[in-house]
Design a protein that fits this description.
The protein has helices spanning about 40-60, 65-80, 80-90, 95-115, 150-165, 180-190, 205-210, 225-235, 260-270, 290-305, 325-340, 370-375, 390-395, 410-420, 455-460; strands at about 10, 15, 20-25, 30-35, 120-125, 130-135, 140-145, 165-170, 195-200, 215-220, 240-245, 250-255, 280-285, 340-345, 360-365, 380-385, 400, 405-410, 425-430, 445, 450, 460-470. It has 2 domains: about 10-245 and about 445-465, Aldehyde Dehydrogenase, Chain A, domain 1, CATH 3.40.605; about 250-430, Aldehyde Dehydrogenase, Chain A, domain 2 (3-Layer(aba) Sandwich), CATH 3.40.309.10. It has about 475 residues and is of the alpha/beta class. About 40% of the residues lie in helices and about 25% in strands. Keywords: Oxidoreductase. Pfam families: Aldedh. InterPro entries: Ald_DH/histidinol_DH, Ald_DH_C, Ald_DH_CS_CYS, Ald_DH_CS_GLU, Ald_DH_N, Aldehyde_DH_dom, LUC3-like.
Length: about 475
């Protein structure tokens, strides 16, 4: 497979060029390096029609056969992991090691979804009557993946959707379309025609997809603001939806933590993927007894992290993915300076090609600062001291979001007790983001609803169907 040129849409079992293209920017250089097809409304109509045409045959294919094909797709991706990783680094910016981890994550998520059995619940099986509930596929799924983890977050949707018998129209972000287009090309050689269609495009394509009358379910990962628009659009035809949205995740560092041992763990929890993670620790509340020690240890560790073009050996952090997000973070930095906030680390962004922003740590800003109350989605994190655990919990929960949270504790039982009081869908003690394809993942409050991963995530792509029968008409 040629990973370097000739990117095409996958529609109905064929690779199709679009009438228009758009440039894809390498965020490490700020320059275009490829052209992606810009799908038209007609292309979308054709993709949906192909998916609807394929649905009956795919849904009636035995579950074991569908699972085998999804597993074969995972195997094919794994065999091409290195070129997938290089392409992902070029369009997303993350270092090669992280890109490879994401590609292998896609493989693991697809294989995990294929390993599940779809449950059948038998309510009654007596001499007189039989009653069961099965889970049947919904139809055509419109899947929308973001730019921070384009392949992995596509896999969150593709694995369960395909395994349970749905057909899919997948739309990647216009900032990171290329690796997903290549995924569609691979799938095209394995899956029946129309089962998986992949369309790249600009800002119009998403609304066209979510409002399309031929789409039965929308699975979306992205910002809360966009998620609300997706929800409103889907409501017109009562589409089922799964929304994994934004977060402003708190970390609470308890008084008995070793600051030096904590520093690398806290750094990667906050700054991994240059902070472009929905589950990143975006507000770090540190007990006053060890605040200075934690701050200083974190600054020391962060100062030694290697930042640069992800294609180069040894890089640990890459650039911000796109200019829009880069400029948003730059405005946040300038506003923090205008408010005379104390920068414990960073704040001066060097002039260079690409969208690079070194890690920034803000020292104890006020609670109403934007850096605290809004999701940054970048390498800028506030450290905030507290004295009372009840106050720390109150502040941690004082957010419209409820995606994730982390407790760092010397006494794990005390940390576990504190974790019970956090209002979030995913709370961890002494670890950060240990995501697994077999563990349910969901958000509270305005971080979305529905479930991804695990058996619960698999069943999000099905509808319960209850059937019963009497053994005899004479009863």
């Amino acid at each position: 497979m040629d990973f370097d040129s000739d990117y095409r849409l996958t529609i109905g079992g064929a690779l199709r060029a679009a009438s228009k293209t758009f440039s894809v920017i390498n965020p490490a250089t700020g320059r275009a390096f490829a052209e992606a097809p810009d799908a038209s409304r007609s292309d979308l109509d054709d993709a949906v029609a192909a998916a609807r045409s394929a649905f009956a045959g795919w849904a009636s294919t035995p579950h074991k056969e569908r699972a085998e094909l999804v597993t074969k797709l995972a195997d094919q991706v794994e065999a091409e992991a290195d070129p997938f990783s290089r392409l992902l680094t070029a369009e997303q910016g993350k270092p090669q090691s992280e890109a490879k981890r994401e590609v292998l994550g896609l493989v693991a998520w697809l294989k995990a979804a294929a390993s599940w059995d779809i449950p059948v619940h038998i309510h009654e099986d007596s001499e007189d009557r039989y009653c069961e509930t099965r889970h049947v596929p919904i139809g055509v799924v419109g899947a929308i993946a973001p730019w921070n983890y384009p392949l992995l977050l596509a896999a969150f949707k593709l694995g369960p959707a395909l395994t349970t018998g749905n057909c899919v129209v997948l739309k990647p972000s216009p900032f990171t379309p290329l690796s997903t287009l290549r995924l569609g090309e691979l799938a095209n050689s394995l899956l029946p025609s129309g089962v998986l269609n992949v369309l790249s495009g600009g800002d119009d394509l998403g609304p066209w997809l979510t409002s399309h009358p031929g789409i039965d379910k929308v699975a979306f990962t992205g910002s809360t603001a966009t998620g609300k628009r997706v929800m409103a659009s889907a409501a017109e035809t009562l589409k089922r939806i799964t929304l994994e949205l934004g977060g402003n995740d708190p970390s609470i560092v308890m008084h008995d933590v070793d600051p030096v041992a904590l520093a690398p763990k806290l750094f990667w929890a906050s700054f991994g993927n240059s902070g472009q993670v929905c589950l990143a620790s975006k507000r770090v509340y540190v007990h006053a007894d060890i605040y200075s020690e934690v701050r200083d240890a974190l600054v020391q560790f962060a100062s030694g992290v290697k930042i640069g073009n992800g294609i180069n050996e040894g890089m640990q952090l890459g650039p911000i993915n796109n200019r829009v997000q880069y400029e948003r973070i730059m405005r946040l930095i300038e506003e923090s300076k205008a408010q005379d906030l104390n920068f414990a680390l960073g704040g001066e962004v060097p002039e260079c090609e690409g969208y690079f922003i070194p890690p920034i740590i803000i020292d104890n800003p006020p609670e109403d600062a934007r850096i605290v109350c809004e999701e940054q989605f970048g390498p800028i994190v506030p450290l905030i001291w507290f004295e009372d655990y009840n106050d720390a919990i109150r502040r941690a929960n004082a957010s419209e979001y409820g995606l994730g949270a982390t407790i760092w504790a010397g006494d794990e039982n005390a940390g576990w007790a504190l974790a019970q009081r956090i209002d979030a869908g995913n709370v961890w003690v002494n670890e950060s983001r240990p995501l697994s394809p077999v563990v349910p993942f969901a958000g509270h409050k305005q971080s979305g609803f529905g479930v991804e991963n695990g058996l619960e995530g698999l069943l999000e792509y099905t509808i319960p169907k209850t059937m019963s029968r009497r053994r005899s008409l004479s009863d």
